[in-house]
Amino acid sequence: MIPDFEVEVRRVYELGELTDDLTAEDVAVGFTDHEGYECMGLPAWSEVEACLVEEAEILARSGASSTSDGIAEVMNTICEHDDVGHAELMQEFRWNDPGVAGLVLALSAARTATFYSCRGGVPGEHHSKYPRVGLVLDAGRARLIARLAEFASCGIRQYGGGWYLYARSVADFHRLAHLVLEHRDDFDNMPPPGWVNGLDDALARLDGE
Known about the structure:
Blueprint: E1 11-12, H1 24-29, H2 45-63, H3 70-81, H4 83-92, H5 101-109, E2 113-118, E3 132-136, H6 139-151, E4 155-159, E5 162-166, H7 170-182, H8 184-188, H9 199-208
Parallel strand pairs: 1-4
Antiparallel strand pairs: 2-3, 3-5, 4-5
Helix pairs in contact: 2-3, 2-5, 2-7, 3-4, 5-7
């Protein structure tokens, strides 16, 4: 089965508190205290679609499992039988947990800066007790994502100048990712945040160090 978590879903945020001063270098190197989280770059919507197809298959197989954490069972089975295929799948997910990977990629394609993701689970095995994704975004994107989050039954919590999105289940995150994808034209028509210009160059410099 796909785990469900006991968390009250609310949407509490202040658009006026969102930060708008990130630079390309900030986004490239990381701008929070969450160590090990790598910048997603500037993915295309086609990459989001491909990721969601793979994620949907993992979630379908997980939902059919009788174990309490079907996602872990499915991913362990894939790894045991085909470690190369497992590595390729995780590369498709940009090394994010299945169940949050599609949303992280969709939010990045929508030109928000993600800084954290976890599908949630037992402390010691997962950083978060329930599915969470952290992001920094401008007010225009925030208004649309807030509306989509409500449709997908996902919560929003203000975190300084950014947000945490959270949910009772990664199935809700997967649904939200599809909604973001469906509204790609709306996001593409919004002015890009300042950090977009120069991000590819900043990432290239990091790769060269």
